[in-house]
Amino acid sequence: MFFATNDGTRLAYEDYGQGRPIVFVASAMLCADMWEYQIPYFVEQGYRCIALDRRGHGRSDRPSTGYDMDTAADDLAELIELLDLRDVILVGHSMGGAEIARYLHRHGDERIERIALISAMLPFMRQTDDNPEGIPGALLDASIAALDADRPKWLARQAQAFFATHLGNDVSPAQVDFTMRQCLEVSPWAVRQAQRNVVSFDHRATLPEIKLPTLVIHGAADFSAPIDVTGRRTAKMIPGAVYHEYPTAGHGLFVSHRDQLNGDLLAFIEKR
Known about the structure:
- By secondary structure, this protein is an alpha/beta fold.
- The protein has helices at residues 39-44, 69-82, 95-107, 137-149, 151-163, 173-184, 188-200, 231-237, 253-256, 258-270; strands at residues 2-4, 10-16, 21-25, 48-52, 88-93, 112-118, 214-219, 242-246.
- It has one domain: Alpha/Beta hydrolase fold, catalytic domain (Rossmann fold, 3-Layer(aba) Sandwich).
- The protein has an 8-stranded mixed sheet with strand order 1-2-4-3-5-6-7-8, sandwiched between helices.
- Residues 22-256 form the AB hydrolase-1 domain.
- One of its GO terms (molecular function) is hydrolase activity.
């Protein structure tokens, strides 16, 4: 299914099941397909599951603009309003978690019941004078330069670390290859713009404003979003956040730790 945003960009989304709505927000370089092991599970539990392909990703249009955090948040808001969703459970991975935080700041929580931030790129990735916990800018810039120079090579070098297979996580070579192919199907322009924007956006002032029930899940072996920079800090900044840390998980825990993740999400969603 598709809808047109205010700037005319056609975005794809998928909609399955009946019941309380869960809106899944994918990470950069991935699309609705990344939730292969979550959506069927939650539909079987009696939930309506909706997943958006952000612009430049999946089946959505590939415009030259709109890869900033504000536009991403506004695109999400347009989908929620188009479907007239209420009491929404927002679940976001990586950049998707950052988009959820930005959505709440720009559009409020009237339609949202609770949120789950998984391996989220929050609160602020880049090291600055007032953010010494961040990743040094030289390292971030070098990684982005390597991505620009040879995207397939950049992905191949990080493929095993993405799932932390070195810690014994049972992720097949076929699954690793499949996920990397999904990443390569994204618009190169969208990848470049999204990566630059997500690592440089500062959410520190707005995270304490979140008053919704919040679940933060992060892997201790996350190479893409190091836990000391992201998950642990995010959980401390959001009032009352429930925090789960997976000792052997990397960034791709939606695959490597799917059963644990689904169970933790379900328990959080059903807790009243």
